[in-house]
Amino acid sequence: MKKYKIGFVLSGGGARGFAHLGILQYLSEKGIRPDIISGVSAGAIAGVFIASGKSPLETHEILSQGGFLKYTKIQLPTNGLLRLDGLKEIFKKNIGPKNIEDLDMPFYAAAANLNTGRAEYFDKGPIHEIVLASSSIPILFAPVEINGFQYVDGGVLNNLPVEPLLGRCEKIITQNITPVNETGKLKNLVQIATRTFHIGVHSRIEIAKKHSDLFIEPKELDQYDLLKASQADEVFEIGYNYAKKTDLSELFKD
């Protein structure tokens, strides 16, 4: 017997992560809720709140207040243009447990170890350090040091971290919020850096699809800025409405 009924895989995608919450909200209304979550970057941020017992709507309310600058601090560009110190404070204020292993449900956060060149999947340890590491897009954000190693956004190596769930779940639902479609002119360094990053991480998508019973990918999300949290409500609605049109029948087959 597999240990968990439904496992969720939540991809990275910056401010598009609010779409994860819209999708989760609709599925929750249909009685489909995760028993275990594996997330990376924006998916790790959304996922850790859900794993702590927060509803998708509660999480949306917490994260949508204040915009991008609420989460970041500008620094001299020695190892990154920005730090995610503000996000750390949001975790401390709104998530009771300090460590991943003390959350209400099992949770994995993927991060890329810069020193070893390998992806790692954390299911234990301090929430604020590990989820920040999972979310630190290289160059844009400074790496996070954990146990003497430097970590960056897990999407560098695996933007759809299905691996921790394999063989453990009856059904796997994967939510990809980084569709890569043709885009117009990129206007600045940040847009170029984030677009380059997400083109690179898109390569593992077929692996995740192979292992997913339901694969949800709202195509129109590629029109939304990865760092523009002011669009949170609109992006949430895109996720919700896309999930509403999704065929859920595969989840109820034996």
Please provide a written account of the structure.
The chain is α/β, with parallel strands linked by helices and 254 residues long. Strand 7 and strand 8 form a beta hairpin. The chain is globular. Helix 1 (18-29) runs antiparallel to helix 3 (56-63) and helix 1 (18-29) runs parallel beside helix 8 (232-244). The protein contains eight helices and ten strands.
Morphology: globular
Major beta sheet summary:
8 strands, mixed
Count every helix, treating DSSP H or I runs of 4 or more residues as helices: 8
Q: β content, as a range? A: 15-25%
Question: What Rg, in angstroms, do the CA atoms define?
Answer: 17 Å
Fraction in helix: 25-40%
Unreliable stretches covering 5 or more consecutive residues? 67-82
Q: What is the CA–CA distance across the termini?
A: 13 Å
Order of helices and strands: EHEHHEEHEEHEEEHHEH
Count of β-strands: 10
Structural class computed from helices and strand pairing: alpha/beta
**Mean model confidence by pLDDT:** 86
Topology:
Layout: E1 4-10, H1 18-29, E2 36-40, H2 42-51, H3 56-63, E3 73-74, E4 82-83, H4 85-94, E5 107-113, E6 118-122, H5 127-135, E7 144-146, E8 149-153, E9 169-175, H6 189-201, H7 205-210, E10 214-216, H8 232-244
Parallel strand pairs: 1-2, 1-9, 2-5, 9-10
Antiparallel strand pairs: 3-4, 5-6, 5-8, 7-8
Helix pairs in contact: 1-3, 1-8, 2-5, 4-5
